[in-house]
Amino acid sequence: MAVLNFGRDLRALGIPQVCKIGMPLETRWEWLASAYGVWSQCMVLATVNANLGEAFVQRSCAVIMTVGERVLSLIAMIERGSMPYCILTYLDALPGGHPCDGRGRTL
User: Fold this and answer.
1) Which tens digits make up the pLDDT trace of 44-57?
2) This protein's superkingdom (predicted)?
């Protein structure tokens, strides 16, 4: 059920079907659960080696799923213009002192 709910939440964010969802994550159970959620909504999963850094942004994904510790670097890439604007979702917690309120909005 959680897998389907995750996929439905992507659709609730306005992400259309057949849209790329980027996932620069290490292999872990959340990766597989997220992948099934993406596929449950007929979306395309774009997996990327997390060590590639800015190389993965060429995929032009509508959503990037990552871990909390990488959110600041992704926001910095968006602000520099080296990555197109996209929705960032993350697993785990954000690092202390992060400028977001935990609901995905920059304050």
Assistant:
1) 988 766 566 565 55
2) Eukaryota
